[in-house]
Amino acid sequence: MFKHILVPTDGSELSQATAKRAISFAKEAGARVTVFFAKPEYPIAYFGEVR
Fold first, then answer.
1. Largest Cα–Cα distance of the chain, in whole Å?
2. Which three-class secondary structure state does DSSP give residue 2?
3. Which of 3, 14, 15, 33 has its CB 3.0 to 4.6 Å from that of 9, i.e. a possible disulfide?
4. What is the DSSP string of 11-45?
């Protein structure tokens, strides 16, 4: 059914565990896996200083 599985990750523990599960599932399904790492280059500030 699945031929190719895309696994986006940000390097967190949760995404690493998900990638391992996706690889296991892909082996059972006979599918290929592509892992995509996406993380901002800098921390996003949701607050600022107003004068």
1. 59
2. coil
3. 15
4. S-HHHHHHHHHHHHHHHHHT-EEEEEE---SSPPP
Please state, in angstroms and rounded to a whole number, the distance separating the CA atoms of residues 43 and 51. Answer: 23
Residues 6+ apart with CB under 8 A from 16: 9
pTM exceeding 0.85: no
Task: Give CA–CA dist 34/19, Å, rounded.
Answer: 10
- The span from the CA of 33 to the CA of 2, in Å, is 10
The per-residue pLDDT for range 2-49, each reduced to its tens digit, is: 899 999 988 889 999 999 999 999 999 999 999 998 877 776 667 766
